Batch of 3 targets.
Target 1
Amino acid sequence: MKNSYLFFFLISIANSSLSQNAIEISALGGYQLSGNYAVQSGNIRIHSNPSFAFLLSFPVPETPGLMAEFSYSFTQSALSYQEQSNLPAQDLFDMSIHYFQAGATYQEIFDRFIPFAIMQVGGVLFHPQNAHYENAWLLAASLGMGCKIRIHERGGIRFQGRFLAPIQVEEGALWCQSGSGCTIYLKSGTVLLQGDILMGIFFQF
């Protein structure tokens, strides 16, 4: 009987060590939430749509529970522009939104339940599906939290929610048209606050 207890104790220690020292990959799907934003001449609307994300996480040996994390997320959206409040909004183009970020995740392990917090910075690409409009790159930061539920010694389910904050660092125009000038101008420090809710799987190796 004592040997059985010892065996299960050693397995528990091994699993805990693996969960804290393994490289981790995650594939998630969910929904990205956007909204209406004031610009210098009117308002723009970025449409909410389903989104997908992929993450690569590395443990930081010096700090138990801390992981360096790289993330990429994608959503297919559209942009509308309303020049005046008494005029109808105009659909400008479909576009894809790509977040490229790096940062840290801190987690606490409670057996199979692993809550965590996320902080990342990077960039976001707004890519119009219309060749007449230019791409727009902005600085982006994110904060979030979530949890992982281990259903296997090397993987399980991951849930998370994030606030996403694209930031216009300097005053300037976005989505200019080749040969036709620009319509949408953002002031310095403008934040296009977004968010996403994601769920998927993670795997450690």
Target 2
Amino acid sequence: MKENEKNNKNFKKLLEKNLTKLPKVGDTITGTVISANKKEIHIDINGVTTGLVRGREIIDESGEYSNIKVGDKVDALVLELENEKGEIELSLRRAGHKKAWETLQQLYEKQEKIKVKVIDANKGGLIVLVGRTRGFLPVSQLSTKNYPRVSGGDKSKILDKLKTFVGKSLDAQIIGLDEKEEKLIVSEKQATQEQQEKEIAKYKVGDVVEGEISALTDFGAFIKFDNLEGLIHISEIAWQRIDHPKDVLKIGEKVKAEIIEINGTKVFLSIKKITDDPWKDAAKKYKVGDVVEGTILKINPFGLFVELDKDIHGLAHISELSDENISDLKSFAKIGEKKKFKILSIDPQEHRLGLSIKALKEKKKTPTSKTADKKESKNQSEKKPSQENSKTDNKKNSDDQKSSEKK
């Protein structure tokens, strides 16, 4: 009797001890794999009970248990304390998700560099994997090297360029994290910024570099030199006016340029600054009043842009084109057409040259009128001596007459 009471007490203590080890729903437990196949994994939980992982809950976001085998220690999240088989229902997927986001949080806080794999692209940026967690790399967060520069900002062409990164790995840093919303934002630009700053520190304003034109846009040309890339604004490409950088440059072309500004990781350069200003000699080559032939480069509502030579361009204002009202300039002139102009003004410092067609048609005195004027002037001068002679003769006759009367 006493022996039975003692055994009951021992069993009760053992039961209470083991019950305290039983997990609750939502807990993460550690167990040992006792069997595993593609459909199910059985896990021993402290020798007290068995847990079951099955279906999509086998997928592990952290990637730690991708090659699971018997004897492995694993972490799993409790979904149910008892399923239809009398086992604890577990999830590696949710435990892995939790663990993955804990790791991401640590990487975010420490601002550590990571490798991300590009798995897809959309118009806004790249879909990436950090381990097995999906994230997003916005276009604006691509490095200078990989930024998709497209003339006119054509979104379909930008997407085509972004798709070329699919399958590649990029260096990045986590810049945004929200586990509840499952949002993970990464930046390649931030990850490469430190290295870029080191590279840029080697240069200063005024340095001349040689590089290769890597992209042409409406606002300028990009040039790669060493491990850097800089912008040559359209106004710094040539002395003459150009509509688009492609008019004078080609992708892949090697050029020299001077660094004119460094702003953080941005470098601005100029080709124009290391070439002679052709306008210095414009006043020697062209004079006010000269009649010249020029080619129509562009037609604007206010006039015509005209090329006199490859370096010197001028403007013929609409008011200097005709005495009559011009309702449509495109009917008056065509791009590429050659016309005669009269130079009205030259300002080499401001790079301005004024032209006129109307001034060519101003009335000039004809040779006939000039000759007539000269003859008239001659006749007038010839008349004066005759009149003087006549006066002298009259006076003489009068004196003679007076002398005769005295006698």
Target 3
Amino acid sequence: MNKRMRRACLATLATIALATLVGSAGCTAIQAQSTVPINVPPRIELQSGDIDAMNYSPDLVAMFGIEGPADSRIGGGGGNVEQIKSNGHPSTSGGSCCTRLPAVWQPDLKLTVRWLAYMDEGNKVVKSWYKAENVRIPKYDGRSAGTTWVVFLPDHRVRVMEPDGIDPNGGNNPDIRPAENDPFIAQGVRDEESNKRYLDGGKQ
């Protein structure tokens, strides 16, 4: 073997050795990363029940829905609840199946409520989607809760409650109209995304 071939051979061996070293270091790094623990949030147990609506507003609600955070499987919906009656009593939609909420009350849970409203503006009827975000639910006992109530209030406001029968004078009683200063009332705004998708040349 002449000197030129020896140098070439040594260079090749050196390259292979360097590649092996780098590859081993890379594997070591990958193995080290794969052992880092990942905190996976626990899956919240849900329970199913009916959903109903009560309307104190002058608008007809054609349909409505509630949804929880992405991938939470929390949600439900119903539709067609007339506007407030002439005697001041609320209209109700009748129960629909089904909605899913946590079996155990989650204080940090925030929902999004969407609804399609038909508003009488004198000589014409205007329809628009509305949405209220960061809607919270008062504390409830899932062991005795059943129907979820969505309460529509004037000025495009909404409240969600889960009656449990434990505190009939508390914040989860659909027979009591929510007070104006109720902290669980959420303000709705026009849902331009839904309007563009469903009303402006859309399906509804």
